[in-house]
Amino acid sequence: MEAIVRRKLSHEVLDRLIGAIEAGEYEPGTQLPSERELMARFGVGRPAIREAMQSLQQMGLIRINHGERARVILPTPETIIDQISGAMLQLLSSNPRGLQDLKEARVFFEVGLARVATQRATRDGLEQLRRALIACQDARGDVARFVAADMAFHRQIAAMSGNLLIAAISQGMLEWLSRFKRELVSARGAERLTLEEHERIYKAIAAGDADAAAKAMSDHLTRANSLYSVLALGAVED
To answer: Phi and psi dihedrals of 72, rounded to 5?
Structure first.
């Protein structure tokens, strides 16, 4: 016989509040009942309510402002990333293989993404990608601007998938890698190589050649990863 596991009251409250939000009882933009009202509704004490509310906030389902009742919010890719970024950055800094695993995952993900973006490209999407490429060219020589433009180029490719989940994952990977990106683009010749590779990716997507786009993206990310490994070992002179 399996033992009966007693759950914390806050977990029960959390499940019920999530169920109420999912059922539309509390729609985005509306406020949840006060702590006192929730205590009476669920028959629990204040600590259980507060723990459940903190969990909801960490999940990106509510926003808590001092002096106000909690307000339900609509989760967005940005809020999802915010909720997990702290843990991911801690993983990168504490796990010897954390960064390597993330780089490998990004190659696998973005190569497939380049193919999808090509297949779903629209005239407007291609124009936005062209502008992102020009922004990269204009930012050459300014490390901070170039990093931002580089990330925007990849974000646009993700956006062209038309899939919010894909866009969120791509944004997360870019955010987690951004702390290391500055060292890459500041290396001698790295900006020039990045621009050439971005142009090949753009031309392949614009031509509707999904195989060429995937190959160009794979070459681009593999080269960037290799360069980072060299820099990390101190083998590249300034």
So the answer is: -70, 135
